[in-house]
């Protein structure tokens, strides 16, 4: 019996799960106990919701010696001679990796029941970065099987787990409705595009139906197909019956069998859209895979070079075993330094150079703070938000074109956003975590032009506590990103960066702050004055009034203060601000509302067919009310602050919710 199966059975038994359809997310054949793997078992019945967990850590002590509290950042007037400047990086850089087995909780129930908060969050990102790239896959893709239909419009089903049979691993059945749901989301938010995972657990019996339906239904909204997820962990875990000795050469051969199948399949018209090799680096580096001749042998299929890595793991707490348990408080300072991001990608820099030489985008295909669910109080802290901002820009500066933050079930601590547990969805709304703000920040730093070039400024003597980046756009300096990892309520660790641009003659700059009193804070976090509220408080729209600071410059030098802790995004020109800060009315929103009792809407799921067909019926200021008497906005916590009027209202599926499409 393979170790994963035994452990999985033990976990299920320990949790008292005796029923296949309990509120449990089960990923097959996980690489348990491996620090770089993506695995997690989410058990809503054991841990109803990670965001109920009040665990708050303590901000680390201030560094000694302290970094200087004022320093200069002089930018070149153009990109022509900036050492270390990246290739152009798209504003879609930060996207999401949605575990296939929970896609029916995160995206929607099926093509006609989409999650409103999810749509709103994607709309915010699209308005800043020009689009959002989302992967549906993960460990659970490997044993997934596409079937023609599942009963009652269901799109996804986990095969039954018999906990008495400890060798059994659950598999996933998916229906084409999953892909239709993705297509409907793209139809509502232009610029949402997808990667799909194709199973590779059994290369003598290929199951390419996900690729076939994916290409046919998604068309241009399908970016790529991932074949093989973390193949360097296959051998160690006995995944798909593979031996411990499973080597890069074995993977090369099996990958070739998948490519041959795809190339011969006339229902898969696009051949050059494959994502690989998706190794973690724990067992094989990408370079070892490339040494097999992989890049040239599969040049006609490969469109993206991918790796996957989590810097840490909380597996011992979830699964037990021989390794020492990790203390989140001890791990916390490791994230609160500029060195963190560079450490994660150090083993992938050669691959990045190779990808660039081939003109292929380099992707961090799945990542987050820590595998096995993340750490309580760490993964869901303001510190994690600073870490993800810095890590993202570090990757961009190293010519990575995208990174996907993993999203899993309700019991994990690292989710950027989490729907309430199924049985609470009638009265709770979503939890948007600190790390989601990082995706907004990076989208604004890079913008929608596709010309953003990023450079690490090695600020303040390359201090690990006060990193900074410059972003050039269309060849000229556009934005500066400033970090302060220190927490110091006295104010003494705040710093001032004196930003200047040779020959530009700046008179003032605009600044947006990601602010919080402490790196340990979980809820009091604002991005330019706006937020998503606390646990269960969000419908995916920013709440509160936008508050942008203006800093006057003297003698071409702009002295930008950065609190401890904090992140500041400095906009050097009007365009660099306006292109990522569209008028609120220009951002489509999908709204839920409140019930008469002032509680959250009966559901946050919208009937996409109504939404899709009604879009355009109203026009600006028009109003269509279909089967709803509720008004938007108003009471208790949900949405609607300072909003209202001018909406096109359409019916949604359950209860008194409404949908507003602002034009
Ligand atoms: C939701 O389900 C969990 C697990 O079955 C249960 O413990 C909890 O009480 C339920 N909550 C509600 C509000 O029904
Ligand atoms: C499908 O829905 C019907 C009506 O609600 C129900 O009787 C039936 O049991 C459902 N079938 C399955 C397989 O869930
Ligand atoms: C989605 O699910 C609902 C409720 O289960 C069902 O009524 C509807 O027909 C399904 N929609 C599709 C497109 O299958
Ligand atoms: C939305 O889903 C429906 C139902 O599955 C499907 O018929 C339709 O083609 C989808 N729309 C798009 C734009 O893909
Ligand atoms: C691969 O997964 C499928 C679907 O879960 C399963 O039927 C098959 O036995 C698996 N093959 C191997 C070699 O593990
Ligand atoms: C990167 O390439 C250099 C030079 O070819 C080599 O020395 C180094 O080991 C490689 N790094 C990795 C992580 O493979
Ligand atoms: C990124 O690409 C640029 C342009 O080709 C190059 O100068 C730079 O060295 C690359 N950076 C890394 C870390 O590979
Ligand atoms: C500078 O930016 C322009 C416009 O984005 C671009 O065409 C050019 O290649 C860039 N030059 C360098 C050296 O990166
Ligand atoms: C929230 O954080 C801000 C700093 O970002 C602080 O000024 C404010 O007092 C905090 N609010 C609460 C209620 O703690
Ligand atoms: C937002 O601004 C409006 C108008 O200036 C004001 O009435 C309202 O109180 C402000 N809301 C918050 C949360 O500050
Ligand atoms: C969604 O709306 C369409 C069109 O009004 C309707 O036919 C369908 O039954 C609705 N779906 C659900 C699940 O209510």
TrEMBL record:
<feature type="domain" description="Beta-glucuronidase C-terminal">
    <location>
        <begin position="468"/>
        <end position="569"/>
    </location>
</feature>
<dbReference type="GO" id="GO:0016787">
    <property type="term" value="F:hydrolase activity"/>
</dbReference>
<keyword id="KW-0378">Hydrolase</keyword>
<dbReference type="Pfam" id="PF16862">
    <property type="entry name" value="Glyco_hydro_79C"/>
</dbReference>
<dbReference type="InterPro" id="IPR017853">
    <property type="entry name" value="GH"/>
</dbReference>
<keyword id="KW-0732">Signal</keyword>
<feature type="signal peptide">
    <location>
        <begin position="1"/>
        <end position="22"/>
    </location>
</feature>
<dbReference type="InterPro" id="IPR031728">
    <property type="entry name" value="GlcAase_C"/>
</dbReference>
<protein>
    <submittedName>
        <fullName>Glycoside hydrolase family 79 protein</fullName>
    </submittedName>
</protein>
<dbReference type="InterPro" id="IPR052974">
    <property type="entry name" value="GH79_Enzymes"/>
</dbReference>
<dbReference type="InterPro" id="IPR013780">
    <property type="entry name" value="Glyco_hydro_b"/>
</dbReference>
